[in-house]
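General statements about sequence and structure are easier to judge against a single worked case. For one protein, we set the task of working out the structure tokens from the amino acid sequence alone. The sequence in question and its structure tokens are set out directly beneath this paragraph.
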Amino acid sequence: MERVEKLKEFLKLNPADSFVQHALALEYIKEGNDPAAQQLFEEILLREPGYIGSYYHLAKLFERNNNTEKAIKWYEKGMDQAKKAGDNHAYNELRSAYEELVF
């Protein structure tokens, strides 16, 4: 719980810090608070679509919660952004997770 509180304090100083929001979302997932994590990931990606790491975690969250349609949508968006950024590693990770889900 201490990590969550520290991350929240950092966000008070800079509410649009995608790195801190992403870290806080991951902590929420560890706590089982998927709704709070989902909200943060979606905020990040709405504001900063090139924040590629959040696509994987958001899609996995939907996948865990049996929302395959949304998981597929976020994997596809992430693959598109990774391709645009030339980030082959992220693209391959997203594609692999996507293919496991779809095929």
Remarks:
- The chain has a mean pLDDT of 97.
- Residues 68-85 form the longest helix (18 residues).
- DSSP finds six helices and no strands in the chain.
